[in-house]
Automatic annotation (TrEMBL):
Pfam families: Rad60-SLD. It comes from the Eukaryota. InterPro entries: Rad60/SUMO-like_dom, Ubiquitin-like_dom, Ubiquitin-like_domsf. It comes from Lithocarpus litseifolius. This is Ubiquitin-like domain-containing protein. Residues 13-88 form the Ubiquitin-like domain.
Length: 93
């Protein structure tokens, strides 16, 4: 038996990314894959700048360093993609 053992492969799950404009995209991702990979694929597909979008699951922000397994996400869970609001308020006149 070899010293190098192959780690058991994590299962893949299907996730729906729901945008503010109602356009949903579906992704299949391994449970141990960092979300940065899904986020950049989503932004590339939608022709968006990554830094202008924030992602949430059940109201909790998801960071690119998180994984589906780390957040206990399950098959067919939904992620919301929201445009990051910059600034705000009124300018003094």
């Amino acid at each position: 038996m070899s010293k190098r053992s192959r780690p058991s492969e994590m299962p893949s799950i299907n996730l729906k990314v729901k945008s503010q404009d109602g356009q949903d995209l579906y992704f299949k991702i391994r449970s141990d894959t960092k979300f940065i990979k899904l986020f950049t694929a989503y932004c590339d597909n939608r022709q968006l700048e990554y830094r202008t979008i924030q992602f949430f699951h059940e109201g909790q922000r998801i960071l690119g360093s998180h994984t589906p397994a780390g957040l206990n996400l399950e098959d067919n869970d939904e992620i919301e993609a929201m445009t990051h609001a910059l600034g705000g308020g009124c300018s003094g006149i």
